[in-house]
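Supplementary Text 2. Reproducibility record for the structural model of the 253-residue chain.

All settings were left at their defaults, and a single model was retained for analysis rather than an ensemble. We include the record here because the model underlies the residue-level annotations in Supplementary Table 4.
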Amino acid sequence: MNKTVTVVSFKDKAVSFIWQHMLLVASLFIMTFGVALCVRSALGSSVISTIPLVMSLAGESGMAPAMTIGQYTYVMNFVLVGLQIAVLGRSFSPVQLFQLVIGFLFGFLLDVNMALTSGVVPAALSWQVFWQLLGCVVLAVGISLEIRCGSVTMPGEGLPVAISRRTGRPFAKVKIAVDMTLVAGAVVLGYVFFGAWQWQVVGIGTLVAMVLVGALVRLLDPHMEWFSRVVCYRPGFRRYVVGLARYIYRSRG
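Retained model, structure tokens:
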């Protein structure tokens, strides 16, 4: 029985790669928008942003280098990738260094979304809860889309993966341990710089985000198959887009 072998041209591979990572950037934008809303709620940020947030607050007070939350996020992601290299040694795949690019984009887009949400200053507790829950939902949607983009993992996920590979422990348990370590680190830094627990950084909202976001991702995942089809480049897709653009341009003319 003869088997048909499909040969994909370099051009199609290149276009597919670009399309895949355009969607990844869109997913990161949605994720960081959710993180920004959690931060603006002042009930506690999401886990990945606890340390960058407390450091940026310390920077505003002149007790640490004056950098934005996004810039501190990139520094933390750089450290997380370094820890992966330390854990895996020669088993660390060089392609995983692409996490640094993803981490930089995440930090940059977080600053963009912090600027876009600057008008969100909830005065009442009910509004704080609303923005926190909305942030968790948006963050979960972004994570669900990012996972299906099929690129390298985020540094915050890459470290638990590396530790799980090295120790043989289940990823879920390692992930929880890493998240708790990050949160504990933010609490300690709060005492170091401010002499008190920073509840707007690590608060009830942080706990809600830890539980709710994961549950929402599991709930959304079965309904995200459509996005997987969008990610998969189909020959002719670019011609369709170009043709549609020409049609719209001619119609307006």
